[in-house]
Amino acid sequence: MYRSSRRFGGTPSPAAETPEAGVRDFSDWLISEPLKHPDFFNVKELLSIRTLFDARVHLGHKKGCRHRLMESYIFGCRLDQDIIDLNQTLEHLQLALNFTAHVAYRNGIILFVCRNRQFSHQVETLAEECGEYAHTRFWRGGLLTNANIQYSHGVRLPDLMVFLGTLNTVFEQHVAIRDAAKMNIPTVGIVDSNCNPSLISYPIPGNDDSPTAMELYCQLFKMTITRAKAKRKQMEILYGLRNKMEDS
Q: Region (Disordered) spans which residues (predicted)?
């Protein structure tokens, strides 16, 4: 910021730094610093292809149930059962975890969604341990698109929605995926071989029915979000120490 030179003439002098400017510089530094590193939160060390294989992530549905948009994620078919390509799963999962970490680092609201009753308690426990939110019940239409009507104008929508299973029933996609796309809310979703990945921002091809696979997903998201929030506190402390050294 500079003083106007039209009135006084000469070279404009910089304005005195205000507390608001210091807070703004601190916020900019916190946001820009993680973006300089491709894996700032080290999410790649959390999993491997062997980990995915042991958790049965590669097991899809019957070949006859395959969705046409999942063709590129299928490694092959054995005994009439689709086998998901774990190389692609690893890549997509790392991207999704990295994006989730950046949202958590910026104090964003993350909503976990799962309609499978078998995993509803597990997903709710995950959200509680991470300090985030979960929705595992019937999704009423308009929860996102009509939020200003159903609630007050000050209600804040989620910054990220994580679908641990993208189907509402065996043949129907979860309504929240469509609503999130309408509201430009980024989504992360586990897409099995019978799912439609087109509306998911970060699709993760993988098994969404196995308890071992679901346990792995929950552990990964929990570790990622916890690590990102801890990194935020660490960066705030580091910034404070740097300012003290500069002042001394």
A: 1-20
